[in-house]
From TrEMBL:
<dbReference type="GO" id="GO:0016020">
    <property type="term" value="C:membrane"/>
</dbReference>
<protein>
    <recommendedName>
        <fullName>Fatty acid hydroxylase domain-containing protein</fullName>
    </recommendedName>
</protein>
<dbReference type="GO" id="GO:0008610">
    <property type="term" value="P:lipid biosynthetic process"/>
</dbReference>
<feature type="transmembrane region" description="Helical">
    <location>
        <begin position="51"/>
        <end position="77"/>
    </location>
</feature>
<dbReference type="Pfam" id="PF04116">
    <property type="entry name" value="FA_hydroxylase"/>
</dbReference>
<feature type="transmembrane region" description="Helical">
    <location>
        <begin position="209"/>
        <end position="226"/>
    </location>
</feature>
<keyword id="KW-1133">Transmembrane helix</keyword>
<keyword id="KW-0812">Transmembrane</keyword>
<dbReference type="GO" id="GO:0016491">
    <property type="term" value="F:oxidoreductase activity"/>
</dbReference>
<feature type="transmembrane region" description="Helical">
    <location>
        <begin position="98"/>
        <end position="115"/>
    </location>
</feature>
<dbReference type="GO" id="GO:0005506">
    <property type="term" value="F:iron ion binding"/>
</dbReference>
<feature type="transmembrane region" description="Helical">
    <location>
        <begin position="135"/>
        <end position="154"/>
    </location>
</feature>
<feature type="domain" description="Fatty acid hydroxylase">
    <location>
        <begin position="141"/>
        <end position="269"/>
    </location>
</feature>
<keyword id="KW-0472">Membrane</keyword>
<dbReference type="InterPro" id="IPR050307">
    <property type="entry name" value="Sterol_Desaturase_Related"/>
</dbReference>
<dbReference type="InterPro" id="IPR006694">
    <property type="entry name" value="Fatty_acid_hydroxylase"/>
</dbReference>
Amino acid sequence: MDAALELLDPLIFDKAYAYLHPAPSAFAGNATLPAVAESAWPRDNIIRQCISILTVTQIGASLLYWVFSALSYYFIFDRRLEHHPRFLKNQVRQEIQSSMNAIPWINLMTLPIFLAEVRGKSLLYTDVSDYGWAWMGVSTVLYIAFNDIMIYWIHRLEHHPSVYKYIHKPHHKWIVPTPWAALAFHPADGFVQSLPYHFFVFICPMQKYLYMVMFGLVQIWTILIHDGDMISGHWTEKFINSPAHHTLHHMYFTVNYGQYFTWADYYFDSHRSPKPELDPIHEALRVMREKGLVDEQGNPIPQKPKTE
């Protein structure tokens, strides 16, 4: 967030706050207005910072959600899965509504953390030379590893019976999720699972623009693992927690808790390998055959146009 405000203050916010909340001007005689308008709230004003952070997070999270969920839904997600018997009526609309309801509350809960970043309480730094280029690579690896293990355990603990029904159950309403389900959860669930990303820069130095990019990529990854893609048999599935793994997580609940990699699931005995026979598309195609929409090979059957 520190990097975002550094970019947006001179481009947008300085002018916006000068217009909405201008600094009082003292006129004497024929004094004229200053050449450059200023706001009564300087950049380090805490009220201005709070408003700016909430504005950036609301617009930024919503844009990422709408753009990348739409791209994944229309170009990757297999729309035949919408015929699966456990695909809910109006599910896409429900997923979108749930996501859009969650985003503002998550942003509000995250505000104190972002505010601490902006006010210099974190270990974010600007100049690469402060730690060198090698540390850029090392901090990236540490960031991913820290998030991976922390989110594994947060996610797994959220499945404990004493917690699950209060926080995580709303996200598992979507047995066969679409990319629109990426943020469709209880706000407390989204906030808790995001905590490792935020806490990392308070315990480990990280270049702020690198952190901004990594944080954005995390949001995109969260969308992509909900695309329902059950491609299996590739060598990377032994290491990467792919959309296939997360599809099985939604279907079987107590497997594949990982975020990026499978090592924690292997080590802590919660891994379930994607296999072709587990693909929910088989059940979706069965329903489509019963409706006369596809033949025995899964090929579409031309439908007669509906007459009024």
